[in-house]
Each structure stands twice: as C-alpha cells, then as structure tokens.
Amino acid sequence: MDWKGRTKQLKTDIPAVFLAMRKTETPVAAKILSVVIVAYALSPFDIIPDFIPVLGLLDDVILLPLLITLVVKLIPADLMERCRIEAEGIWNDKKPQKWYFAIPVVLIWLGFLWLFWLLFRIAA
User: Fold this and answer.
1) Buried b (16+ CB within 10 A) or exposed e, 82-102
2) Averaged over 86-97, what is the pLDDT?
3) pTM for the whole thing?
C-alpha cells in the first residue's frame, strides 16, 4: 500500500481502534497499548522535542502511525473489520459526528494550562 492509501487507512483505523477498545473481545495488550499511545499523543512531551528541526516531527509522523498499526495487528481481524465499518460514519462532512469524544482531550489540556498557571503564580 502506498503512502496516500496508508494515510487514508489510518483515518479510518484511529476511530476504529477507539471503538475496538470498548469491546470485550479486544485483547488486554491492545487496550493497554492504546492507552499508552493516546497518552503519548496527547502529552505535551515527546521522545524527540518538536523544536528540533525535521527530527522533532518524526515521532508524530512515523512513531504514532507505527504504534497504531501495531495495535491494529493485536486486535482480531474480524473485530477490527466490524469496528472499521462502524467508524466510517464518524467522519461525515469532514468532522466527527460524536463531538463529545473531544471532551477528555479538552479537559486534559485545560488541566495542563491550569497547572502551568498555578506553577507560574507560585514561582512569581
């Protein structure tokens, strides 16, 4: 599969992995790795800091898709296919239909902002 096809597949696989994590048939190893991937993706800290030219974006461009691919391989093929079909409707009109999935992300970033604000006030 070429880069363009793989990128399009990832667009479906990411929400499908999210849906698979809610299924009881999904192996525990896949669930744990998914939590680690989401935590790393949402974390403001990277293995390679983003301010390093070119190399800083490699973890986002290469590492995260590789980890998602690993999770997909850990999930049984029939379950992943069902979740892909279910995930196809999430991105209608180029925006998620289930916008409330973004609430935890927003809360995490608000928590980080509050923590930084609190640390800044203590240091000042």
Assistant:
1) bbbeebeebeeeeeeeeeeee
2) 67
3) 0.63
